[in-house]
Amino acid sequence: MKLNVAVFFGGETVEHEVSVISANQAINALNREKYNVIPIYISKDRKMYVSELLEDLKNYKDLNELTAKSTQVTIVREDNKVVIKPVKAKMFGAKEIGTIDVAVPVMHGTNGEDGTIQGFLEMMKVPYAGCDVYGAAVGQDKVMQKHILHDNDLPITNWFWVYGTEIDDNKEEVLRKVHRLIYPVILKPARTGSSVGISIAHNDEEYLECFEEARQYDEKVITEKVVKPMVEINCSVLGDSCHAETSVLEQVGFSNDDELLTFFDKYQANGKGGKGAKGVKGEGSKGMASAARIVPAPISEMQTELIQNLALKAFKVLGASGVCRIDFMMDTETKKVYINEINTIPGSLAFYLWENKGMPFEQLMDRLIETALERERRRSRMVFSYETNLLQNY
Question: How many CA atoms lie within 13 A of 300 on its CB side?
Answer without folding.
Answer: 6
